C-alpha cells in the first residue's frame, strides 16, 4: 500500500505520551466510531461515527515524530474500533513504523474475524500491527491478571518479534493517568478490576463510574 499521509482520521482523543496503554511510553489515539456494542463499554461517546475531530494523517505523524523526543517507543490505536477506520489507519500505521516505532492495536474483533475480512485495508492494517489485543469486551469476565487488558476473553497477539510476552512490563500493576486538559479532567488507563476504564470526561468534576473497555 502506498504511503498516504493526506488521509484524514476521525479521532476522539489523543494522548501524546502515556504509559498506561501498552508497553513503554506510547502515543495513544482513540478513533471515533465503533460498529460493535459491548455492554459496559466505557467509551460510549466514541461509538457513533459522527463526532470527534477529523485530523490529517500528516499532522498526526508530525506530533508522533515530536513525541519521539519524549521517549515513546510506539503508537497505540484504540477507540472506538481502529479496524473500522482501516482505510486511513493502515497507511498511518505504516508511516508510524517507518519512524521506527511499534504499533499496538486494541480491537473488538478477533484476529480470526480480521483475517477473514475481505477488506484490503483491514489486511494492510493487520500487517502493520506489532501487538493486537483482540475480542469483544465482556463485562462479566473482568481481567484481573494481565496489564492493559479489559476482559479475560481478550487475547494478546504478538504479530511481529518486536515485543515479547515475557517482557516484565506486562506483569506490572496497572496504572491510571489523570490530566487536566483545557479545564476538563481526562483519565486513561486501567486502575483496578472494578474501574478499568479508558477516557472519562468529568464535566464539573462528576464522579467516574466503574466501567471497562478495550
Ligand atoms: S468495548 Fe471496544 S469494541 Fe466494544 S463497543 Fe466499546 S469500543 Fe467497541
Descriptive tags:
3-stranded antiparallel β-sheet, alpha/beta, 7-stranded mixed β-sheet, binds iron/sulfur cluster, 18% helix, single chain, TIM Barrel
Uncertain spans: 192-213
Q: Which sequence of SSEs, written as H and E, runs from N to C?
A: EEEHEHEHHEEEEE
Count of helical stretches = 4
Q: Please count the beta strands (DSSP E, at least 2 residues each).
A: 10
Annotated CATH topology: TIM Barrel
Class by helix and strand content?
alpha/beta
Beta-strand level of the residues, as a percent range? Answer: 15-25%
Could you say which small molecules are bound to this protein?
A: iron/sulfur cluster
Q: Going across the major beta sheet, what is the strand order?
A: 3-1-2-4-5-6-7
Question: Mind explaining what this structure looks like?
Answer:
It is globular, with a radius of gyration of 16 Å. The two termini are 28 Å apart. The model is unreliable at 192-213 (pLDDT under 50). The chain contains 4 helices and 10 strands, in the order βββαβαβααβββββ. Strands 3-1-2-4-5-6-7 form a 7-stranded mixed sheet. It has helices spanning 57-67, 86-98, 111-116, 120-127; strands at residues 8-18, 26-31, 53-56, 74-78, 102-106, 131-134, 155-158, 176-181, 184-189, 200-201. The chain has one domain (8-172): Aldolase class I (TIM Barrel, Alpha-Beta Barrel). The chain is an alpha/beta fold and 214 residues long. α2 (86-98) packs parallel to α4. α2 links the parallel β4 (74-78) and β5. It binds iron/sulfur cluster.
